[in-house]
Amino acid sequence: MRHPPKKVTYRFSPKTQKLVRESIPTYAEVEKKIRENFGTFADSKNAPIHRWFQYPAGFSYKAVNYILDQHVIVPGHTVYDPFVGTGTTIVVCKQRGIESYGVEAHPFVHEIAEVKTDWDINFKALREEIQNTSLRLEFSIADAEREDVSHLPKLVRSCFSRHNLQRLLFIRSFVQQSVSKRFQKLFFVALTCALRQASAAATGWPYIAPKKRIKEKDGLEAFIKQLYRMIEDLESVPPEFRKTPSHIILGDARNSKLPSSFFNLGFTSPPYLNNYDYADRTRLETYFNGYASSWGDITEKVRKKLIVSATTGFIS
Q1: pLDDT in tens, 241-259
Q2: Which of 42, 56, 102, 266 could form an SS bridge with 37, CB 3.0 to 4.6 Å?
Q3: d(CA 110, CA 15)
Q4: Considering its fold, how many domains does the chain have in total?
C-alpha cells in the first residue's frame, strides 16, 4: 500500500524572515521607479534612434522592452502596434530581432517612422554622402540669401530669423536636388529634427510659443550635427538585427484588415482623450515640409483622418 507523501514544512530563521519582509517593499519601490516614465518620452530623449524626433505623444522604449520580456516575445514571434506613431514599438522589436507591423494615419509621422526603421544601409556610402553634402553646403550656403520665405505660413516665419530660415530652405532645396534618392528621406528627417533645435522661438513639446524668444542656433550646424548623430545611432545596431523585417502601413488601423491571429502580441498607446491634437502638435514640421500650408489644409489632409483625442478636435 502506497502512503501519501509526508507534508514538509520549511521554517526560516528569524533573520531570513526579516530579510524577506524588508525586501518586499524594496522590490516594489524599484519596480515603481522602473515603470514611472513608461507613459512619457523621457527615457527615449537620449536613446539611439528613438531620440531623432521627439514626439509629444511618445512613450518610453523601456515600456516596450518590459512587456516583451514579461510575455517572452522572441525572434520568430510577431508584434503589432495599430497606432505606431514615430515607431517606438517597431524600433525596439527590430533591435531584438522580432518582426513587427505598425499602422499610422498621419502622413508626416508615418514617414518619420519609416526612416527610423530603415537600417539596411550601406554605411560607407551614407558617410560619404553626409561628408560631401556638408562640404558642398558650407561652400554654397551664402546663396541662401536668395531664398524667398514670404510664402511660408506665419508660424514658420515666427520661429526663425529671416537669415536662418533662408538657410534652412536652401538646405531643403539642396536635399531635393542633390542628395541621392536612397538617402533623401533620411536627410529630410535630419532637417526636420533640426528645426526645433535651431528655432529662435520656444518650441518645446507640445506647444510652440513664437513670442517667447530663445537663443537661435545656426540651421546648417544643427542639420549636420543631426546627420552625424543619426548615422552613429544606425551603426550601433548589431549587424544581425539590421534586416529584421518591419512593416509600417500608412492608413487607418480600423481598416487595416490585418488578422489578429497573425500576431503574438499587440502593444500600443491609443489616442485616448488627453486633449492632444496630434495634427496641431506637428504644425511646424508639416508646414515647413509642405505637407500643409494652412490650418484648413491640416484639417483636410490630416485631422479628418485621425481618431479624435481632444475635446477641441471635433469637426462638424
Answers
A1: 999 999 999 999 888 888 8
A2: 42
A3: 57
A4: 2
pLDDT at 290 over 60: yes
Domain final residue pick, 235, 263, 282: 235
Burial category of 220 from C-beta neighbours within 10 Å (exposed 0-12, middle 13-18, buried 19 and up): buried
Burial 231-265 (b: 16+ CB within 10 A, else e): bebbeebeeeebebebebbeeebeeeeeeeeebbb
User: Cβ neighbours of residue 178 under 8 Å, at least 6 residues apart?
Assistant: 133, 136
Look at 4-8, 124-128, 216-220, 239-243 and tell me which has the smallest mean pLDDT: 4-8
Identify the bridge partners of residue 223 per DSSP, sorted by sequence position.
none
Distance CA 138, CA 141 (A): 6
Amino acid at 117: T
Q: Give the integer Cα–Cα distance in Å for 90 and 69.
A: 15
The fraction of the chain above a pLDDT of 90, given in percent, is 54
Is 22:36 a contact under the CB 8 Å cutoff?
no
Q: What is the pLDDT of residues 20-52, one digit of tens each?
A: 566 655 545 655 666 666 656 667 778 899 999
- Answer yes or no: is 187 within a domain: yes
Nearest to 94 by CA among 204, 265, 243: 243
Report if residue 24 sits inside a domain: no
pLDDT at residue number 302: 80
For residue 125, give the C-alpha cell. Answer: 556610402
* 119, 48 contact by CB (below 8 A): no
Which range marks the domain in which residue 138 is found? 123-235
Give yes or no: residues 225 and 132 share one domain.
Answer: yes
For 141, the grid coordinates are 550656403
At 316 the pLDDT is 44
